[in-house]
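Chapter review: from sequence to fold.
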Amino acid sequence: MDPMSLAPVPLLAAAVFAATRAGRRPAGVPSVAETAALSALALSLAGVVWLIVAGPSSLSVGAGVGLFALRLDAVSATMAVLVAFIGWVVVRYSRRYLDGEAREGRFHALMLSTLAGVLVLVQSGSLLVLVAAFVTVGLGLRQLLLFHPERDEARRAAAKFSLVWGAGDAAVILAAFLLWSSFGTTDLAVINMASSAGLPATAQGAVALLVLAAALKTAAFPLHGWLTEVMEAPTPVSAMLHAGIVNAGGFLLIRMADLLQASPGAMAALVMIGGLTALFGAVVMLTQSAVKTALAWSTVAQMGFMLLQCGLGLWALALLHIVAHSLYKAHAFLSSGGAVQAVADVRRPGPVAVPGLGAVVRAFLMAVVLYAVVAAGFTAIAAEKSAQALALGMILVFGVAYLVAQGLADEAPAALTRRTAGASAGAAIAYFTFHQIAGALWGGVLPATPAAGALEWALIVLALLSFGLVAFAQALFPLWAHHPAAAGLRVHLANGLYLNALLDRLIGELKFPKTP
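The C-alpha cell string follows.
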C-alpha cells in the first residue's frame, strides 16, 4: 500500500474529533486539525517518493461496479501534494481567522472532511470512487458555505452551488453508467486504454456528459454565478474553493484525457466553452471594485482558459495551469484582507501614458515577432511544437502586448519601454520553458497532443482572432473610456451582463430554510 492512499485517514480522524467539540474555542481542535493536515501533506510527499522508487501502482478492492480503486501516478501524485499543501496552509490560517467563532469546532470538522474527500477524488482509479468523492465534496462544501446560515446571501449561494454542483454530479453518475455499459469495466485506466479502439454511441454520450460535468464544476459560462456568490463564506473556504475544489472539473478531464481525445466533438466543445468563459470572466473581472469578487471572476476566467487548454489537447499544460493557479489564488484570497491597505499605502503615480492606435499596432507586431523568434529558437533546440501549443503561446503574448503598448506610448519614458519589451520576451521564454518542464513531468502519463486537422485549425484561428481582438480593444480602451457608451458598457459588465440575475429568476429566486 502506497503512503499517499493513507493521506485522507488523519484528516478524517481529526474531523471526527473536531465534530465532538463543535463550539467556540474547542480545546485542542485547532492544533489537532493542523497536525492532521500536515500529516496528510507528509503522506502525500511520501507517495511521491514511492512513485519515483517503485513506479505507478493501484490499490483495488472489489470488482465490477463495486470496484474501489485508488491510483498512484504522476497526475494523482501532483494533485494530492497540491491539495494537501493548500489544505495545510488553509487549516493553519483558519486557526487565527476562526478563533472565537461560535461554530469554530464545526468549521474544522467540515473543512477536514471536505479536504479528505478532495484527496480521495484526485487519487480515484475507478468510477465508484470518482462518483462518491464528487458527491462527498459537494456535500461538505455546501455546509461550509452555510457557515453563517443566518445570512440570506450565504443561503442563496449555497442553494445555487448545490443546484449546479448537483447537476454536475448527476452528469458524472450517468456518464459512469454509460461507460460501464460500453466497456464492461469501471477501472478508469482500462476505460482510457479501450477508448483508443473507438467509441460506441453510449461512450460518445458519456463523453458529452463528462464535458457538461466539467463545465458545471468549473463555473463555465453561462452557469458561473455560483462561484461569484460564495464570498459570504469565511475566507479560508473561499481560498479552498477557488484554489482547490473548483479544479475538480479540470482533474476529471485530465484523468479521462484519452477517452475525451477520442471524441473530436467533445474537444471542440471544450475549446468553445473554455474560450468564451475565459474572455467573459477576464473582461468582467476588470470592472469589479471588491477584492474578493474580482478574484472570483479571475477564477472564472482561469478555469475557462484551462478548459481551452484541455480542448486543444494540451493536457500537461492544463495540469501545470491548475498547479500554478491554485498556488496563486490561495495566496491571493488569504492575503486579500490587507489588499485595501496595501493599495492605499502605494505612492500615487504621475500621469499615465496612454498609447495611441499606432503604438498599439506596433506593440502587437513587436510582441508577435519576438514570440516567433523565441519559438523558433526553442523548436531548434527541443522537439517541434504542435500547432495548438504555438497558438496557446500566442494568446499569452497578446496579453503581454498590452503592457508593451504602454511602453511605446509617445509620453512613455525610455525605461518603461525597455521594461515592457523585456516583459514580452520573458513571457515567451517562460512559456516554452514551462512547456518543456510540464512535458517532462507528465508527458509520459497523458496522451500526446493530436495532429491538427481541419477542425483543429478552425478552432485555433477562432481562438486567436477572439483573444487578439479583445486584447487589442483593451489596449485602446483608455482612448474611449470617457465616452458615455463606454460608461454604460462598464455598468453592464460589472453586473456580469445580468446572467446571474437571470439564473436567479429562472430558478424562482431560490429561498431555502435556515440551516442550524
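Two observations follow directly from the output. The chain has three domains: 1-123, 154-336, 350-506. Residues 218 and 246 are 5 Å apart (CA to CA).
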